[in-house]
């Protein structure tokens, strides 16, 4: 074999080896595809009906290396087939268990019996203490010691049972019953027998409640924690003989004991059981308190309840921004301090209400807090602000300040884009308008002559200020709503704008009449004021018509105001005014309307025909 034949042989051998390798790769791919397809078919038969058969997809392979001349013939490779994957099947959602299904489970009866037995045991312990006092059984000290020993034994048995997983249901119930008994025993030793001074009793109670809640945290049982706190809160009023300051103190102790665990764990039941009983007890204690008796003690406890509640709500919402209990807690915690103002006299009551309003409104302005939390704080703060205004001020000044607060809230709403501020502004404005119509600038001032109205110069001055502020509010509130895109343009949503326009007209008319009566508090001032009101309405209508050439809303408003001025002329001015006042009203309004009609017609014609002579600019002079 010469060199040339040897080289050709080596080339053919290399090509044959390459073809063999290609065949092995093809066979391996076919075997993997077959195994995957069989497994997928088996799964599809179990979880779903078989998928619709589809034709296999042929995948082209690289060109055959034996296409060269002189190579050994090799059969073409079988095209690789890809089978479609079965659709993924999600497990169907499990239906929620009904109450009967839960009670029918194994062990459900034991849990129910254990907790019902614990609740009855706690109630029996309280009744035993009350009966022992009424019948004189044993002495106070044996009662306290016996109750402590009995409750401690229940806690010990519960801890011993918790070591066995099968006995943990009874362990939870026994431990909750024992801690509740110990806490009630401390209350009895402090309130009924006076063995412990109130500060010492509160500290001991804090230790007992904290121990029970910490044990619940260690056992990871919200049920145990809620059982301890709820049992103590429900049974405490029996031993304190009603809603007293000491009861509120013990309930605040429960709240402070449960707060660290509530912040660490998301246990809404514990938050409710520990957060709201002090608020309710403080409100009832204030309602039962006798003024001038011990009001400062009641007010101090109410203020402490408010402070503790707001602090706990802030700490909770910092830890969990979506906690709905914190939202309810920040709104409800301000109620005790607000209600406690009924026991105080001026200016202490307004200072207390103002302090609560300042704190809540400051929370409302914090941008990092959740919107729901700040909205609740802002709503309660605005209520406290209104209470402060009503307490601190009286008469027409109160009305003017309420309307000024409405204007301020409208500006804050437009500036900070807070819808809650806009709602508060509308509420304040509505209340201020009712106060204006009924007291500050009554309708009788606009309809009756001064000889029928008993008012002084001071009332007219306050009415002037109130009417001006009312007009400013009527213009500010819809502007803020339009800027916040809450209210659409007048042409698209006319009703709110019509209401605002009527309020603005009332404020403007009241301001003009109060100014005229302030200058001349007699019939001449009344008549001159109404003349100015009629003429001013027509002037305002002319202004709206001129500005509304290309604005349908302003144009409609101007025409409505023209109609109102004409109606006032015919129905009121013609009958109420006489002499010079009637002549001035009719001449002034008529001349203004005549001028308005002539000028408005020219402007409309110019707007419709831009190429008219009046609309063309003057030609430059030619030289």
From TrEMBL:
Compositionally skewed regions (Pro residues) per UniProt: 49-65, 73-94
Segments passing through the bilayer: 112-132, 144-161, 173-193, 200-219, 225-254, 266-290, 296-317, 324-344, 350-366, 397-414, 421-441, 461-482, 494-519, 525-546, 558-577, 583-601
UniProt cross-references to Pfam families, sorted A to Z: DUF2339
Keyword RNA-binding: no
Region of interest (Disordered), residue spans: 49-95
Keyword annotations from UniProtKB, A to Z: Membrane, Transmembrane, Transmembrane helix
Domain of life: Bacteria
Name by which UniProt lists this protein: DUF2339 domain-containing protein
Record organism: Lentzea roselyniae
